[in-house]
Specification:
Two copies of one chain form a homodimer. The first copy, chain A, has 692 residues and is an all-alpha fold. Chain A has one domain. Chain A is built from 19 helices and no strands. Chain A is globular, with a radius of gyration of 24 Å. The mean pLDDT of chain A is 86. At the A-B interface, helix 11, helix 12, helix 13, helix 15 and helix 16 of A face helix 11, helix 12, helix 13, helix 15 and helix 16 of B.
């Protein structure tokens, strides 16, 4: 059963061990003053309340889906020859959602501890504080890749069947959809309602502890950026590996190569983890050094180690070097895509500068300018994804039929190989952002705040790069999933061609391109409705809790109730959008058949990438345009330009934190649903029944 | 040479004659008081200044392109066997741009006369005023279809070659790109700068005659909505007919049917004109009647007449009824798509109402809500286009190979057959809008203003429906053009498959979906730059013309100079966007070959439709949400909610008047460029040269 791919579970375990080491490293650091500890404890309490509530609802959801899977997939239980596969698939699904939830839980848990510890260490200098922030983030990064790859390895070792691993991936993705879109609705709900009642109605400052929503608001960043982004990349990571395993299995069957091609992605992913672990251990900064450079250096080191390790593995294990080439192409494309999204959202580049300047002529010009640059920003990454797939394809095409699409899949694996480090960098962001808040609220010295500021600025850049990277990776992954879907349909005896001049493909594509728009609209409108409910609760507490408004000693608002309302509401608003997304996918498939569904998936990929990039970048750009003005340019804080920029930033918030980042996950979930149901749809669909 | 298709030039001539009759009907009406005539004269002067300037620049552009066409197409002049074809194509191109310009010129000319005459007649009641408004608009409608079809007929009669008719269509489309996108930049430039200097800086009222930009602003509506929409539908109309002629020619060659299938679209288009002429003659309203109902009734009558006439023609001329069926499917889809866009932009439906309500909680919520409903609104029309193509395809597929795509083309022809009436309804809008303005500025009675109000309200609804219709029609047309492109490539001996799993198709599609975003961004940012230049000029005039600011008797600003600056600037800003659109199309083709170009076209269609619908509907929705508040709800004029809604409306302006409506034309131009160059690209492209 085991071959070279044993490297996968081994390095996954190493990753988990190093993650555990970082966990205890962070945990044993000093937590700072009493006041700092209090603030951190409140955030931790809120995050736990969120997770408790979310996981309770999720458990029900997972249970319902598990029953449905067990009945219908891979084949309906009443007609299958192998009912054991239904059970395996169901268990894999539950296991996948469990692993994804576990990674998110661990990451969020340490993130809410590392913030105060990094703030405390900042009193001793950057070189003491930075490793706490970074290693706190790295716990999440290493947990994601460790749990992801270990889970895949276990399912594959037990069943030997990539189709069952698909169930594991689906479990991870459905969890991710909740974590990402639900977290996105949650964080904006809390943000908007805390501001509206607190700042606008009562005139109390931001982050005032009297505001019942303040903890929900603080928790929001952690929930969206730590747990959400972690789940998002967990899902792309697992899905890319599974897609290539399915494509590889088809080659193995033809070439009689006994699992060789099925296992290459596992071997490479294992080496990617080793590279990321080494990279994470090597990230450090001197007393006067730049944290931004340290993070970038970590990324470049990891990429280099990965390229060298996979080259050596290919050489010694006799893998064709073309496959290695495709992998490296994906890796390079990922870095380039990340860098271009930095251009569009960076404070010292024209797009943000001109948007800040446009605020001088009013709110509308700020919004139009920012939106326009957001539209521009989709160009480089889309071309990057397109070129990476084409190069990977043509590199591997000479190996024979089916190898070309396998090459595209390996490019996705290559891009995602360094995901351990990418998530580490990303989770670092909200940790040091919180550190800065704690340092300020805890009344630490100017010098300490300067250190936390510097760490925070590096975090923002890292975040912009990660968002671009996550979208690029999702793009390549879903293209690989589309190929896997086609492969699955072929295994059912259909030989579909996704030719755009086929009207079913065209119809599917036209429906598909509408879906990300509809999904975005549903979650953004959901934020508004959810905020409305929460506002009612905040007003109620201020009215009913005696002494709260006046800030009487010992009177505390019911933070947990606000967290609870935001959480329940977020899940409630997310449900219709998710059901529409999955439901329309199944309807298109069971009515129009495989080709309509293929066109549909392609359509969702196209428009999903378009909107994800537009929303992420426009949102980031508006945010930084506001920051430029707050730093004193164009009239500074309180000027008309500032008011305009604040509106732009508020418009951008649900773009970049709610709708935009959910789209990756949405298209991955749709693609996985399609692949899971491919065989069933190929056999039973309306057009086939009608004989068309 | 002539067969039944002689109906095409004959009905085109009838259309032109009836249009001339309407022209003189409107012209001989009373022009109202002296003050009214003055206002109308100023608008007319401004419109003429715009046209003069635009046509001068366009003449140069057309000349340059004509030379290039003559050298390179259909085959490079130094290696072609038939140099006469290069000359024919060039002349057809010039002729196409001339006809399109002529139709726009006539329509704009009568629109700027009909406004004051309708206002004057409103003193005698609705039943006197309405026909002037409607017939003023119908001049444009009938000129568009008359000139369009007559031009096609002449080119086809002379050359007998649909490929040359493609040149005619390209001429019409490149003109349309200027009229639509240039007009869109123009109108918003004038609007923004007139407001910023007049209302904001100097505090003088809107439409104050002292403001040098006021005429430019008044002209804007006519330029964008009359000339622009006319050119847009002219271009879709011609392109759909040409696309089907090319597809029909391929069938004729196989079936030996001597031009039969090439000519069906001409016959049907001719019958469509007769239906539209009858419909236009039958549109009237009683003294107490509703103008909105009258317009709709005209549309339904035209559709019915068209369906009956084409059925009879099919019966007597022995056309297969399946082709008739495909045509009718397109017709029905057009009406449905128009109606759904009415839902999303209508003042008494939830989307607009909720957006108005959201203004209560601030600007950002107004924008997010409006944008979200805009995202929702793309769903019905995209599905409508998809289903119409699929039904048309499957209806005609049993006739044999190539007939199925021909069916999709005929659906586009069916949808566009009633375009004469649609343009009439649309051009009616700005005419009666101006009537209302003239009635108010001319100090007419309350009762008269109420009549003009009623006519205006019907115009707004008609406009919403037309926009949806225009986008739907463009959608089906470009799908037909994609098929025509494939056909042209096949005629060059390539047999391309636009399979999405082909990485070249995929790369092309990824570049293609980015193009409408980039194009929109370029024209929207262009509005900002252009407005900046115009603001300088307005300030200069106020500073340098003595007595202007104080409104001294006899002192007039230099209106023409503002018109000139807006015009030149609009063309200057449009040029880079157009060059990028056409340039990238050629680069993708000459580098990646036919399959990359096919994917690219599909990508531009997908994302072009998505953004065109989103922008048109979100823009209309914000506009009407503002109107609801201005009518007194949610605090009425001057309230905080009103301020928020005004910003939403201003953001929506470049969406709905600049970027959105240009996208149709942009994707049509790209598709035509691709078809024109198809043979050349099939023979010479980088990948082929490299042997890939």
């Amino acid at each position: 059963m085991f071959g070279p791919w044993i490297i996968a579970p081994i390095s996954a375990l190493i990753s988990i061990l190093v993650g555990a080491y970082f966990y205890y490293y962070v945990k044993r650091q000093d937590s700072g003053t009493k006041r700092m500890q209090e603030i951190a404890a409140a955030i931790e309490e809120g995050a736990n309340a969120f997770l408790r509530r979310e996981y309770t609802v999720l458990a029900i959801f997972v249970a319902v889906v598990a029953v449905l899977l067990c009945i219908f997939l891979p084949e309906p239980i009443w007609q299958t020859q192998k009912p054991i596969e239904n059970v395996e698939l169901t268990l894999a699904y539950i296991f996948g959602s469990f692993c994804s939830a576990l990674a998110g839980f661990l990451g969020l848990r340490i993130a809410t501890k590392a913030n105060t510890k990094a703030a405390s260490a900042a009193r001793e200098g950057l070189n003491k504080a930075f490793p706490i922030g970074f290693r706190g983030g790295a716990v999440m990064g290493l947990a994601v890749v460790g749990a992801g790859l270990l889970g895949i390895s276990i399912v594959y070792a037990v069943t030997g069947n990539p189709e069952i691993v698909l169930g594991y991936s689906f479990g991870a993705s459905s969890l991710a959809l909740f974590a990402k879109a639900g977290g996105g609705i949650y964080t904006k709900t809390a943000d908007i309602s805390a501001d509206l009642v607190g700042k606008v109605e009562l005139g109390i400052p931001e982050d005032d502890p009297r505001n019942p929503a303040v903890i929900a608001d603080n928790v929001g960043d952690n929930v969206g950026d730590v747990a959400g982004m972690g789940a998002d990349l967990f899902d792309s990571y697992v899905a890319s590996i599974v897609a290539v395993m399915i494509l590889g299995e088809a080659i193995d069957i033809i070439a009689g190569s006994a699992g060789l091609y099925t296992q290459i992605p596992l071997v490479f992913a294992g080496l990617g983890i080793i590279a990321a672990v080494l990279g994470a251990l090597l990230v450090r900064v001197s007393k006067k050094g730049s944290p931004g450079k340290a993070l970038n250096m970590g990324t470049y080191i990891t990429c280099t180690i990965f390229a060298v390790l996979t080259f050596l593995a290919s050489y010694y294990l006799n893998y064709d070097l073309r496959i290695w080439g495709a992998t490296v192409v994906g890796l390079i494309a990922g870095v380039i895509i990340g860098t271009t999204s930095d251009y569009f959202t960076s404070e010292d580049k024209p797009p943000v500068k001109k948007t800040a300047e446009a605020s001088l002529t009013g709110t509308a010009t700020n919004i139009i300018t920012g939106f326009s640059y957001g539209l521009h920003s989709v160009f480089p990454p889309l071309i990057g994804i397109g070129i990476a797939s084409a190069v990977a394809y043509f590199l591997c095409a000479p190996l024979g039929d089916k190898y070309a699409l396998y090459g595209i899949g390996m490019a996705a694996v290559g891009m995602l190989s360094i995901v351990g480090l990418i998530v580490s960098n990303d989770a670092y962001g909200p940790i040091v952002d919180n550190s800065r808040g704690i340092a300020m609220q805890g009344g630490l010295s100017e010098e300490v705040i300067r250190v936390t500021d510097e760490m925070d600025a590096a975090g923002n850049t890292a975040k912009a790069i990660t968002k671009g990277f996550a979208i690029g990776a999702a793009g390549l992954t879903v293209i690989a999933l589309l190929a896997a879907f086609q492969e699955r349909a072929q295994s059912a005896g259909v030989n579909p061609s996704f030719n755009l001049m086929n009207p079913l493909v065209l119809l599917g594509a036209l429906i598909g391109i509408a879906m990300p728009a509809v999904f975005s609209a549903m979650v953004m409108l959901g934020v508004g409705r959810n905020a409305f409910r929460m506002i009612e609760e905040i007003r109620r507490q201020f009215n009913e809790i005696p002494g709260l408004r006046e800030g009487k000693e010992g009177v505390k608002p019911d933070y947990a109730r606000c967290v609870d309302i935001a959480t329940v509401g977020a899940i409630k608003e997310l449900m219709p959008a998710s059901i529409v997304a999955i439901g329309v996918t199944l309807i298109v498939g069971f009515v129009g058949g495989i080709e309509a569904l293929g066109g549909y998936l392609a359509g969702t990929i196209f428009s999903g990438l378009l909107f994800a990039l537009l929303m992420a970048n426009a949102g980031g750009l508006w945010d930084n345009a506001k920051k430029i003005i707050e730093s004193g340019e164009h009239g500074g804080k309180g000027s008309e330009a500032h008011k305009a920029a604040v509106v732009g930033d508020t418009v951008g918030d649900p773009f970049k934190d709610t709708a935009g980042p959910s789209l990756n996950t949405m298209i991955t979930v749709m693609s996985l649903v399609a692949s899971l149901f491919a065989v069933l749809i190929a056999n039973y669909n309306l057009l086939k029944l009608l004989g068309l």
